[in-house]
Design goal:
Aminopeptidase, 318 residues, 2 domains, 13-stranded mixed beta sheet, alpha+beta
């Protein structure tokens, strides 16, 4: 059946894509061959609004049936990165090749490190259709750019969270001071080598809280005896697919190796299990972040799906 391709137009497209991702996730038996809707929301309210990842209008393309039903979506996430979301019933080399051509033409970018224009596309290592297509089109696999997608069946027994003496696990409060504490904890967890004067609280976390799936009762933090927030795990629960997605998870350097992040993950799983969730998921780790991988493996199990970036430079060089 003939498909038509077009760029993103308006807010109606956004909600149609969210519904499409839910359908695809269920068609794939809750395996992340495409994004979950929570990752799309995270990219929009964090990546675009806080990190400057372009716009929906310039970073998203849809392939539709005559009826207007999406069957594939191409989107960026970050500089020169492209992700292919495809209905598993419509997959073909022709469709994904066309998506790659659009990505190369519209989503490529100059790399700050190399100064070269290129495009990076992520693919599951077990996805022979896509990895074969990427290789034939001149892409090179980058084993250091790896994400491991972990999933845990919530029908299995969950151990109780173990919390060190003096710390408490709790959800975010609604007041401005807690927002400041949470913003600072996020900055310290992911920018540990930067001087404290570089911290700018701004409104970045207020943007995150505007995302459709955000729930304060699932935005979990560990509070130290001092009253400061020192670890966090934000959980996005989609009751349509009955799945939970952790993003982000972190701990400030001075409070690591105490089991705080693990305790938050287990507490989050317990909460969404009681709401009817069937699975909990998290992405990251791998060879790119071995500390995170150790944490996720300890909670979700060592088995996970490896998703790796393939890069192609468009200036003719190797």
């Amino acid at each position: 059946m003939r498909l038509s391709a077009r760029p993103y137009r308006d807010e109606e497209d956004y909600w149609a894509i969210r519904q499409f991702l839910r359908e695809v996730y269920l068609l794939n038996n809750r395996m992340e061959h495409s994004w979950q809707v929570a990752r799309l929301d995270w990219w929009r309210w964090y990546g675009i609004m806080n990190l400057g990842h372009g716009t929906l209008e310039t970073g998203v393309f849809l392939w539709e049936l005559q009826s207007g039903q999406p069957v594939a979506v191409l989107n960026r996430e970050g500089l020169g990165q492209a992700f292919l979301q495809v209905d598993p019933r419509r997959r073909s080399e022709d469709l994904e090749g066309e998506m790659l051509s659009v990505a190369e033409s519209h989503l490529s970018a100059l790399s700050p490190s190399s100064g070269r224009r290129g495009i990076a596309v992520y693919a599951r290592d077990t996805d022979g259709l896509r990895t074969g297509l990427l290789e034939r089109r001149g892409y090179t696999r980058l084993p250091d750019w790896q994400e491991i997608q972990h999933s845990r069946d919530l029908a299995e027994p969950l151990p109780a969270p173990s919390v060190p003496r003096g710390y408490i696990l709790r959800p975010m409060h609604a007041d401005h001071e807690d927002l400041r504490r949470r913003s600072r904890a996020g900055w310290r967890a992911f920018h540990a080598d930067e001087p404290s004067e570089n911290f700018e609280p701004g409104g970045w976390y207020a943007n995150v809280q505007r995302a459709p799936l955000y729930r304060r009762d699932l935005d979990l933090v560990a509070e130290a005896p001092s009253g400061e927030i020192v670890a966090f795990a934000t959980l996005w629960y989609d009751d349509v697919t009955r799945s939970g997605y952790f993003e982000p998870v972190g701990c400030v350097p001075e409070h690591r190796k105490r089991g705080l992040a693990k305790a938050l993950l287990l507490e989050g799983m317990r909460r969404i299990r009681d709401m009817g969730a069937l699975v909990a998921t998290v992405g990251g780790g791998g060879v790119s972040n071995p500390e995170a991988e150790d944490l996720y493996a300890s909670v979700f199990g060592k088995e996970g799906a490896s998703c790796t970036a393939w890069v192609k430079y468009l200036d003719g060089g190797a």
